[in-house]
Sequence to fold (434 residues):
Amino acid sequence: MTINLRNLGLFGLVALLIVGTGVLQSWNVALTILNYGLISAVMALGVNMQWGYAGLFNVGIMGFAALGGLAVVLVSMPPVGEAWSAGGLRLILALAWALIVLAAAILTYQRMAAGRMRTLAMVAILMGGFFSFRALFDPAVAAVEAVNPAGTGYLGGLGLPVLLAWPIGGALAAGAAWVVGKTALGLRSDYLAIATLGIAEIVIAVMKNEDWLSRGVKNVVSIPRPVPYEIDLQNDPGFVARMTGWGFDPVVASSVTVKLAYAGLFACVLLILLFLLEAALKSPWGRMMRAIRDNETAAEAMGKDVKRRHLQIFVMGSAICGIAGAMLVTMESQLIPSSYQPLRFTFLIWVMVIVGGSGNNWGAILGGFLIWFLWIQVEPMGQQLMLWLTAGMADGSALKDHLLDSAAHMRLLTMGIVLLLVLRFSPRGLIPEK
Fold:
């Protein structure tokens, strides 16, 4: 196997940037960038699978990542017994009734002949089902959310190990992607983008407003961890003695140890996904997907079911985004629905894929680390640069104030410059598709 020295040098440069952060700033900052970079790389792999393999323009990344984060709450948080007693069963029955109504509407549409009678039957089923659902659902929600709203006010989860939430988060995102894909993948690429963005906004709106499910804007905190807590390490005499003997501050060492543990878990997920995606890309299935991407008409003429394959890869890529979303919430130990902003979970991930190299898994990983490093470090570096540039200016100067205020926009400016430079000098990305 030949080693591409250019690609190796690019990864070496990113590693040098992270190590340099540890040496010049702190290892806690460097490891935080590393962990977020690992999660970003996983999410970029999912988007690269959809766009690079099949040419599907998905801008609903935020929604699938949020569903992965929601899975962490539903799986790992302990159940709230009082809330279940107050209205949990009624709430489940209401949701089951909603599914029955939808199934009845679908069967009516399929079994009855087109015409006025089918339309009237559909309207009757949906309207009657809606009002009966609200009659069951609203009192149950009110009862659940009234149980200690400051601390709980929701049903909680299953109380299972948090690591189980990662594949379940992927499955939850995959299920949502299947529903979206069945209706939206027949549309043109621009309409698909609008549809996926709309679905993402709906998911976030539900998470913000349905307190019984995710506590809404009150957030879910103290999510269990798969790694030790810093305070537990600091209270462990063996750990303290070992770190002191090695010349480290136990408080700092505990934080670094926890971040290293997270980095190990995230790296394992990334490596497993990379191995599977590389094997898939080099298989006949991967060659077929790229053939469909390059010329759908020719692929259909060869007997390939294009829509089915698009749905398949859309679901798989969304599942990877869901896993990344679950990893993110696990590391942060909290679910904050209002934090799911398109700027971070859509625009930034797309920049990672484009800069790294669309269609190349290694490029997506490189883009994930590089862009996240710049996203974190550019603003403080820009602030220092502006302070240096304005050091000789008089206090209160309009130009000085303007330059200092402009430092807050360095992130977006840098992302734009990086994207333009890459598109100008390496249009296929830093590590192009082979």
In short: The chain has a mean pLDDT of 91.
